[in-house]
C-alpha cells in the first residue's frame, strides 16, 4: 500500500494559519449552519502549497478532552480539501465520540497533522515522538499519530502494542511475518479556541 516517497516543503507559519482558517470556517459552517463545505469558498485565495495533495488528520480538542479525530493517510486530495473534509468528519463522524454540538464551538481547538509519505518501517527503527505508525494485518488497519506516543509517554514497545490495539488486533501482531508496519512523520500545529484567543478581544 505504500506510496512512492514524496517530499513536501514544510508549511510556513503563514500557510499554517491560512489552513487553520479554512478549517475553522468549515467547522463553524457545519456546526452552525449544518453545511458541509470541503472546498474553500468561491473566490478565496488559496496558497499554492495548500493545493498540493497530502495526507492529513484533524483532531478536535475541548480542553484536555479529545472530541474527534479523522484523517486521510494517503495524499489523495489537496491538503486544504483534506483538512476541511476531516474537520467536518472529526466533528460529526468519529464513531468513538458523540458529535460535537454547536454550543461547544467556542471551546474547540483544531489540531492539524500534515503527514509525510507513509513507508514501510522496521520495528527496530521506530522512534517514539518522531514516527507515527500504521499496522496492517488480515484486512485490519490501525494508525496512531506521532504526538500520541509523546502525550502518553509510551516506549517503542508500548507504541507497537498500542497501534495493534487500535487496529483491533492482538498486541503482538506487529511481530507476525504477514503483518505490515509503516511509519511516517507529521508537521503538527493547532489554533486556539475562539473563547480563549486573546486576539479576538
Q: What secondary-structure arrangement, pairings included, does this model have?
A:
Layout: H1 13-33, E1 56-62, E2 65-72, H2 79-92, E3 108-115, E4 119-120, E5 132-137, E6 140-144, H3 146-152, H4 156-166, E7 180-184, E8 186-190
Antiparallel strand pairs: 1-2, 1-3, 3-8, 4-7, 5-6, 5-7
Helix pairs in contact: 1-2
Describe the 3D structure.
With 201 residues, the chain is α+β, with helices and mostly antiparallel strands. The chain folds into 2 domains: 13-116 and 186-200, Glycoprotein, Type 4 Pilin (2-Layer Sandwich); 119-184, Hypothetical protein ph0010, domain 2 (Dna Ligase, domain 1). Helix content is 26%, strand content 23%. The chain contains 4 helices and 8 strands. It has helices at residues 13-33, 79-92, 146-152, 156-166; strands spanning 56-62, 65-72, 108-115, 119-120, 132-137, 140-144, 180-184, 186-190. The strands form 2 sheets. A 4-stranded antiparallel beta sheet has the order 2-1-3-8, with helices on one face. It has a 4-stranded antiparallel beta sheet with strand order 4-7-5-6. α1 packs across α2. The model is unreliable at 197-201 (pLDDT under 50).
Features:
201 residues; alpha+beta; Glycoprotein, Type 4 Pilin; Dna Ligase, domain 1; 2 domains; four-stranded antiparallel β-sheet; 4 helices; globular; disordered C terminus
Query: How many strands, what sense, and barrel or not for the largest sheet?
Result: 4 strands, antiparallel
Tertiary shape: globular
- Binned, the helix content reads 25-40%
CATH uppermost class of the largest domain: Alpha Beta
* Strand line-up of the largest beta sheet: 2-1-3-8
Number of helices: 4
Low-confidence stretches: 197-201
Structural class: alpha+beta
**Average pLDDT reading:** 93
